[in-house]
């Protein structure tokens, strides 16, 4: 019991410090870095679900951020973590149930609308294909075209 009283406060302190480091220094952030395979970025089928996963593609000094999610209709969706309206704020989206919520203006977009609706505050769609094994394929050129949404955005 005495050992517990010594270890427990130290463990809480480590947990608190790691949480602060994550929040302020970006350790363990929400973006997983992806590497291209030739002219394609591949997201494994096993990594695609109705919970959005956020990725970052690095092109030189630019970091292009995007997310992938399976909509309620079963279709795999992919979009930049930016929109045509709020992108300058650099806040992107978060998921709440079947919706992606703009972190700047609070508008909600059902994941079934991603890649179907363009413009406004909708997540900027990415052209995508799904191979026979269910992996999502994104063209590197398509991702690079999205760099403009992140080059001058606030971070």
Descriptive terms for the model:
five-stranded mixed β-sheet; 3 helices; alpha+beta; Rieske Iron-sulfur Protein; single chain; 2 domains
Instruction: Count all strands and give the number.
Output: 11
Shape: globular
Low-confidence stretches: 10-27
Widest sheet: strand order? Answer: 1-3-4-5-9
> How big is the Rg?
18 Å
Supply the number of structural domains: 2
Overall pLDDT metric: 84
Helix content: 10-25%
Task: Label the CATH architecture of the largest domain.
Answer: 3-layer Sandwich
* Number of alpha- plus pi-helical segments: 3
Q: How are helices and strands ordered from N to C?
A: HEEEEEEEEEEEHH
Strand-pairing-aware structural class = alpha+beta
Biggest β-sheet, characterized? 5 strands, mixed
Our estimate of the beta-strand percent is 25-35%
In the CATH hierarchy, what is the superfamily of the largest domain?
Rieske [2Fe-2S] iron-sulphur domain
CATH topology of the largest domain: Rieske Iron-sulfur Protein
């Amino acid at each position: 019991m005495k050992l517990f009283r010594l270890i427990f406060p130290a463990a809480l302190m480590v947990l608190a410090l790691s949480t602060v480091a994550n929040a302020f220094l970006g350790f363990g952030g929400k973006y997983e870095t992806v590497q291209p395979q030739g002219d394609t970025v591949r997201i494994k089928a096993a990594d695609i679900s109705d919970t959005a996963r956020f990725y970052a593609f690095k092109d030189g000094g630019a970091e292009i951020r995007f997310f992938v999610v399976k909509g309620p209709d079963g279709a795999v969706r992919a979009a930049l973590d930016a929109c045509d309206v709020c992108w300058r704020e650099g806040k992107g989206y978060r998921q709440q149930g079947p919706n992606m919520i703009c972190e700047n203006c609070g508008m909600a977009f059902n994941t079934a609308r991603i890649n179907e609706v363009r413009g406004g505050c909708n997540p900027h769609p990415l052209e995508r294909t799904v191979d026979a094994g269910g992996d999502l394929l994104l063209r590197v050129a398509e991702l690079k075209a999205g760099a403009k949404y992140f080059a001058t955005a606030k971070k």
